[in-house]
Amino acid sequence: MQTIGLLHGMSSVATADYYQRINELTNQRLGGHERAELLLSSVNFGVIERCVRTQAWDEAADYLVGKARGLERAGADFIACGSNTMHRVAPAIAAAVSIPFLHIADVVAHAAHQAGARTLGLLGTLPVMEADFYRDRLADHGLSAVVPGQGDRTIIDRIIFDELTRNIFTDDSRAQYLRIMEQLAARGADAIILGCTEITQLIGPRDFPSLPLLDSTALHVEAIVDAGLTAATPRA
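Below the sequence we write its predicted structure tokens.
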């Protein structure tokens, strides 16, 4: 078993979900009382939120690079960052450590190909939906992304930061997301990416049976466990 280096705290809601899912899936695979070998660096989400809000990406990169190096020094065999948004600085993190970095968008892209999807509706924070880093990574896998209109992007982002990261999940917000997802389907999306690691706790396949949902949390967790139980993890 390899030691997982989990870079998280973005938010604590998603962190707790990742930790539980990783250990439960490891136990399902191995049985008995087996759980994951895992090192967790849980960062101050206040620092991350401020960096996102002010677009201080260099500061965010320096902050997370320091945490990633700490995980490597502590004995992690590979690193996963449990935040789609902070993959904006993934190249800096991956370059700063000598161990593999498991990129969440690569995992999502692999699942899209398995589902036979090529045009993906993308939900997430404003940086995920509006910047190039996530869509470019998908494009590297031959996939295209469509995003909601400006007003709906603002709604999605507000619900994430004001509600989901505070462990607030309401029927009204779920209805907003479902409305927006229907619009993405009407625009030609073959599948919908739940591209924020808290969205999985608001929306599930039973809520939206129209298209495959590419749940970045569930997919990333499965890839993390696969890597943790594999002798050699490929470098991204």
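The chain is about 50% helix and 15% strand.
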